[in-house]
Amino acid sequence: MNVKAKIVPYYSFARGAFAVQKLTAALLLENYRAYVLNDLGTGKTRSVLFAFDALRSNKLARRMLVIGPISGLRRTWAREIMLALPHLSYAVLYGDKTKRLRELAKDVDVYLINHDGVEVIADELDMKHFEVICADELAVYRNARTQRTRLLKRLVEDVQYVWGLTGSPIPRAVTDVWGQCSCLTPWTIPRYFTIFREQLMLKIDAYRWRAKAGAEERAVACMQPSVRYTLDEVTELPQRVIQYYACDMTPEQAKVYEHMRATCVAMAKSKTIDALNAGAALSKLLQIAIGYVYTRAGEVVELDNTPRLQLILDLIDNCKNKVILFASYKSAVAALAKMLEANQIDHAIVTGDVTPAKRNNIFTLFQDTPRYKVLLAHPVCMAHSLTLTAATTTIWAGPCTSLETFHQANGRTFRIGQQHKTLIALVGGTGVEKRIYTLLGQNEQTQNRFLEIVEATTNE
User: Residue 456: pLDDT above 80?
Assistant: First the structure.
């Protein structure tokens, strides 16, 4: 979308601002309600800050409220303010209610709060009278029935400028846009969700719906006015390489894997497999392949996975810059940490058990200091709003099954600020793993393909 606006010729952008950021800011300035659907790493945060700063400098706005993920408040928004627009003041509304209200009472330009934090001080936010509200990662409002979504609707009702940011507007189903549009532009969608669903989907049975042909394009078309740029259009970014690295299973792994595969084949032939037990079977196959298997009692059985560990270690050793290493199971994260420690590789660990404050400290040390060669993490904990361009290699110890998580996690290194070529290393050793990586690379929702993937094991 080639957008021209008055801001481009007269606003003094920060040095190094990209054309995509300028044009995105232009769209926001020309529309009271707008969506930024740009790809990960295209600089959406700075685009919003530029647009707000232009409004502020022309006395068209005084305050902006940014609502986003906890991980991105300090790590992304506060950091971008300090780096690009240090003349703007900000406050982070996080903690208990007393702490949030203390920060809200400050006279600053930008207020930052997490999605669920709005409920804690909703009445006080209403009384603050923001001229601009930005909802980052807008797709979290896809369910219009949640309290989170109801509060956003109430909060933005009388606000002049409301902007929504998301690189993944349809994370689950084409109908996800209805809840998001109900907050920002309710006039672009039918009044009732059921009507919208019938327009875009076909009912298969009492519980299942399937998207009609062209439904995704029709759904996103409801998010107007909007701007959508891909990373390919940011010509200033260096090249990214995505490569699959195969490793053999050990005899121990192969024996256990073959037993599980035979069980899947038997279920497929007897037609007793459905989406639910296919998902469970697939998870078990992936656990065996990576080498750490959960029992029904919740204990972890470790299988000899020496080839995989050695391949990961070689990839790390061959990278002169920092590395992000993802594993989709906590058991695998713990075991990989032992491997890194045994090889005296400076590393940090980020899982759901690590507090937000500690995570922020880890991210800062990783990005801004020589500390930590490797950031070892569960991908869900690093899937949004983080800039970690100190790393040039991302290693997947095994595939995840969420398309959104996969793309978001890969976007931590390949984004504005990256000065080097980046590598996404996909480690696998089975047909199932390679099939999942292929589907993810084709932007396929693997959650909807569990049955197909498991049935495909009959051909391994």
Answer: no
Locate the DSSP E strands across 37-89: 64-68
Q: Which residues contact 311 (CB under 8 A, 6 or more apart)?
A: 245, 247, 427
Residues 6+ apart with CB under 8 A from 453: 278, 282, 432, 435, 436, 439, 446
Q: How many beta carbons lie within 10 A of that of residue 174, not counting itself? A: 24
Query: Residues of CATH 3.40.50.300 domain(s) within the chain?
Result: 240-459
Degrees, nearest 5: CA angle 91-96-97: 80
Identify the CA nearest to 91 among candidates 107, 68, 75: 107
- Worst-scoring range by mean pLDDT, 81-95, 223-237, 257-271, 291-305? 257-271
Q: Per-residue pLDDT tens for 149-174? A: 999 999 999 999 999 999 888 877 89
Q: For residues 300 and 294, give the distance between their C-alpha atoms in angstroms, rounded to a whole number.
A: 5
The pLDDT tens digits for 274-285 are 656 777 888 899
Concatenated DSSP letters for 161-183? EEEEE-S-S-SS-TTHHHHHHHH
Rounded to whole angstroms, the Cα distance separating 132 from 119 reads 19
What is the CATH architecture assignment of 7-233? 3-Layer(aba) Sandwich (3.40)
Q: Quick check: pTM over 0.85? A: no
The residue behind tokens 């290493």 is 325
d(CA 225, CA 27): 8
**Three-state DSSP class for 113?**
strand
pLDDT surpassing 60 at residue 220: yes
Q: Are 452 and 401 in contact (CB under 8 A)?
A: no
Task: Please write the tens of the pLDDT for every residue from 62-94.
Answer: 999 999 988 788 878 998 999 999 999 999 999
Give ranges for CATH 3.40.50.10810 in the chain. Answer: 7-233
What's domain 240-459's superfamily in CATH? P-loop containing nucleotide triphosphate hydrolases (3.40.50.300)
Instruction: Check residues 459 and 401 and name the one with the higher pLDDT.
Output: 401
DSSP-assigned letter for residue 456 = G
pLDDT at 115 over 90: yes
Is 198 strand, coil or helix?
Answer: helix
Contact in structure between 363 and 75 (CB atoms under 8 Å): yes
Q: What percent of the chain has pLDDT over 90?
A: 62
Please give the structure tokens belonging to residue 436: 């999942």
Count of C-beta atoms within a 10 Å radius of residue 116: 14
